[in-house]
Amino acid sequence: MPAVNGVSNGVARPKKPSTNGASAVPQHIPSPYEVMASRIANRVAEMAENITFVERERPSQQPASPAPKAKKPPRKLEMRLGQNTSSPTNITFSAPFLDNTLAKMLSLQDRMLKVGQELAASEDVEESVKQEQFRQSAELSRIIALICAEKARQGA
């Protein structure tokens, strides 16, 4: 049976050390955009593990029609790993996934801005708590900007 990931019959085998010769393949240094995209992908993947998307039937205002209409297939909410490179940041998101995530992030940002405004007006709250809330809001704004950039990149 062939070894998988250096493990054969439950026994790990040490990997050969790589040499630092001129014939070695140069290491890919990720750009800041790739690093942020990787971080966002990890955060979104963590969120997706904790969230189940369920489409609920909407109550119809009209009586049921005798002729059933063909249902549209549900939009795919997915992340796809690129097959053409070995880069861990080569991830694409389906447009519905980006739309859904962006809508949720904008809703969260709206709530955070309202809370931030209330905290700023309150005199009982420590300054460090206010500053932390503003830092979190700014981080969320950066994530939203990256999602918008990804939507624009895929639309181009």
Protein described:
Residues 82-92 have a biased composition (Polar residues). Residues 1-30, 51-92 are annotated as: Disordered. By secondary structure, the protein is mainly alpha-helical. The chain has a domain at 30-50 and 78-156. 48% of the residues lie in helices and 6% in strands. It is built from 3 helices and 4 strands, in the order ββαββαα. It has helices at 32-50, 95-121, 127-155; strands spanning 7-8, 11-12, 79-81, 91-93. The protein has a two-stranded antiparallel sheet. The protein has a two-stranded antiparallel ribbon with strand order 3-4. Strand 1 and strand 2 (11-12) form a beta hairpin. Helix 2 (95-121) runs antiparallel to helix 3 (127-155). The model has no long low-confidence stretch (mean pLDDT 73).
Distance between the termini: 46 Å
Looking at the structure, what is the overall shape? flat
The unreliable regions are: none
- Main sheet overview: 2 strands, antiparallel
Overall average pLDDT: 73
> What is the helix fraction of residues, given as a range?
40-55%
Strand content: 5-15%
Number of helices: 3
User: How are the strands of the biggest sheet laid out side by side?
Assistant: 1-2
Instruction: Please identify the structural class as seen in this structure.
Output: mainly alpha
- Rg (CA only): 23 Å
What's the order of the H and E elements? Answer: EEHEEHH
Number of strands: 4
